[in-house]
Amino acid sequence: MFRYIIRRLLISVPILAIGSFLAYLMVAAAGNPIAELRAKPGVTEAQIRAVEASLGLDKPILQRYWDWLMGFLQGDWGQSIALGQAKVDVFDSTMRALWITARLVIGAEILAIILGVTVGVLAAVKQYSIFDYLATSTAFLMFSMPIFCVAVILKSYGIRFNNVLEGLGMDRWLSTVSPAEGGFKGDIGEQIFQYTGTYLLPTLSLMLISFAAYSRFQRASMLETLHSDYVRTAKAKGISQRRVIFRHAFRNALIPVSTLFSLNAGALFAGAIVTETVFGWRGMGNQLVASIRSFDPNMLMGWLMVTATLIVVFNLVADIMYGFLDPRIRLA
């Protein structure tokens, strides 16, 4: 298994290298970061050339990429170069945004996987039962609703719920804005109250959509596994249904769900853009939108590299999970 993991890691390195080069070319071709400066009246050509030199825009694209890559590998991701804004360190800003998004996404993914896999297995075992129909209807409903609809609906009901609490003389509980920079204050009870109220609505928004995908994939995979020859053979030997499900069918049925997890988790970490926008979170999604609006190449490259790394890492996790779930994969 160790050799299998090393082999997958070695494959991931050139993928990231090629991805960084292509991303840099696309960002460089997307626009000119000093176009706004050129449009300002009274700006001389000498001033423009000075800004270009300070940003390295006077160098060939390959030289610029090499300089950026060497700095990136040494932990120097550059400074934000958005004109008219305070310069901030790209690494610090990206890590801060990643931590904010991680706190939101991790909880949503854990809940979605647990509930989705559980419901999918039960729906497959109890095929065509009332539970199966209810689970299928709920999953299709979540599939058909765009994420912004789910987020806006939850936010509106959260505001109404807070109004009811306020009318009863109680504190507002469900927060519809980003958590405070300094964290939650007060004793442990007050912190739990603030934490759950802040994270509940955006976590539910992400969890409901992911839950629908996990439950449907798990149900379909479990049904296919339950009708396999080796499962029918195990049943014919008189093995209990519970042991057949959890010892023979469940493990193999998790393989397709592992693929979905790697794709879904990477995409969510890359930036739950809609959810963060609706609830005012300053995470990876907010960083992407801000860097595109101001066309900040360094900040955009920081976002792209973190996103690419996360996707590669989660695909590596999926490959490792394949090896654990099916020994034939790691021994191939």
- What is the tally of beta strands? 0
> What would you call the shape?
globular
Total number of helices = 14
Percent of residues in helices comes to over 70%
Structural class comes to mainly alpha
Mean pLDDT: 84
Distance between the termini: 11 Å
Main sheet attributes: strand count, strand direction, barrel closure? none
Q: What's the level 1 CATH class?
A: Mainly Alpha
Radius of gyration: 25 Å
Strand content: under 5%
Order of H and E elements: HHHHHHHHHHHHHH
CATH architecture: Orthogonal Bundle
Reported by name, the CATH topology is MetI-like fold
Any idea what the CATH superfamily is called? MetI-like
Looking at how many chains there are and whether they match, the oligomeric state comes to single chain
Show the helix and strand layout.
Blueprint: H1 2-30, H2 35-39, H3 45-55, H4 61-73, H5 90-125, H6 130-144, H7 147-167, H8 188-226, H9 229-236, H10 241-270, H11 273-279, H12 284-293, H13 297-325, H14 327-331
Helix pairs in contact: 1-13, 5-6, 5-8, 5-10, 5-12, 5-13, 6-8, 7-8, 7-11, 8-10, 9-10, 10-13, 11-12, 12-13
